[in-house]
């Protein structure tokens, strides 16, 4: 078993630090990456608020080092239009504010032959991302390999020590495919190709507070993982959602309008009046857990054309999500 560099207590302590201290530590981690890899780094820039903060922090470091800032954006076709607009405009802001050279590299998901592929291609060939990555993967395996595979035991309770998925057993008989492969195909594969072709290491804006997996990764590696097969830096891993919003607010950093306004509540906490997360517009992971108006109902109100494409049957050129959501009893209008 790999020994962890940090403990959960370490993470809680670091998450409680002031924003000023977090900025100092994060910039130190970024500086370490640039020094060790002789400025051959790039920011994985999605256009969201987290990666906008990361790009701004990295731009400060590049100004000190007098080196070029490289932003890499993978155009998955799953972004809000406001996010894509921000991706085009943000580099100009960085150039003007910090007086540095900024290069934007735009990439696309592609198949093995190099042909560009879409989310629609993925859901039709591999399956829809539903419930969670774990559930989707196990359902996909059972559908593909049959009831004799290990994954089937997760659905009938015979496998101990794993997430109990008996409640999702009915998905095995769904009249459509289910898979966890879209993230790998749409995001991870393009990033791996760029890492190899550019010989640069990625600086990524993920945070430990976002998921159990990301927390575990931080506990094992810390912010900078330079001693594993694929080196990377996650310098804001110990930040919180509130830190990101405070940074944008205090330093007047531009962000996509889809988030709305950043405000402060009576307890001094920051919040968005619009969307809180802008990841992949059509992703259904976790939608079954949302209370009140869910992401798809909200999409109908804010971006009706995207909603229509999402819900339209496949035979009419849409994604066919309406029947998928009905199958798992999630409202979509």
TrEMBL record:
Domain Phosphoadenosine phosphosulphate reductase: residue ranges: 42-107, 174-283
Transmembrane segments: none
GO MF term set: catalytic activity
Name of the protein: Phosphoadenosine phosphosulfate reductase family protein
Originating species: Enterocloster clostridioformis
């Amino acid at each position: 078993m790999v020994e962890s560099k940090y403990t959960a207590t370490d993470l809680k302590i670091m998450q409680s630090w002031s924003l000023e201290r977090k900025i100092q530590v994060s910039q130190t981690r970024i500086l370490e990456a640039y020094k060790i890899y002789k400025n051959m780094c790039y920011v994985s820039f999605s256009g969201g608020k987290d990666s906008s903060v990361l790009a701004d922090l990295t731009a400060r470091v590049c100004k000190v080092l007098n080196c070029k800032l490289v932003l890499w954006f993978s155009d998955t076709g799953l972004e809000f239009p406001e996010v894509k607009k921000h991706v085009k405009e943000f580099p100009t802001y960085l150039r003007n504010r910090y007086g540095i050279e900024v290069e934007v590299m735009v990439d696309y998901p592609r198949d093995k032959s190099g042909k560009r592929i879409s989310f629609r291609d993925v859901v039709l060939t591999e399956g829809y991302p539903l419930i969670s990555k774990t559930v989707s993967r196990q359902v996909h395996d059972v559908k593909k390999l049959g009831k004799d595979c290990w994954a089937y035991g997760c659905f009938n309770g015979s496998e101990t020590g794993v997430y109990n998925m008996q409640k999702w057993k009915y998905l095995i008989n769904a009249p459509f495919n289910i898979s966890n492969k879209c993230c790998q195909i749409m995001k991870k594969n393009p990033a791996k190709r760029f890492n190899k072709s550019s010989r640069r290491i990625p600086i990524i804006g993920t945070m430990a507070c976002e998921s159990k997996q990301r927390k575990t990764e931080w506990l094992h590696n810390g912010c900078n993982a330079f001693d594993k097969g694929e080196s990377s830096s996650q310098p804001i891993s110990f930040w919180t959602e509130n830190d990101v919003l405070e940074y944008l607010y205090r330093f007047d950093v531009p962000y996509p309008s889809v988030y709305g306004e950043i405000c402060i509540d009576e307890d001094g906490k920051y919040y968005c009046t619009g969307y809180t997360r802008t990841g992949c517009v059509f992703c259904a992971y976790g939608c079954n857990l949302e209370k009140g108006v869910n992401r798809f109902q909200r999409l109908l109100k804010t971006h009706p054309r995207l909603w229509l494409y999402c819900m339209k049957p496949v035979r009419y050129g849409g994604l066919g999500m309406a029947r998928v959501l009905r199958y798992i009893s999630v409202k979509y209008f």
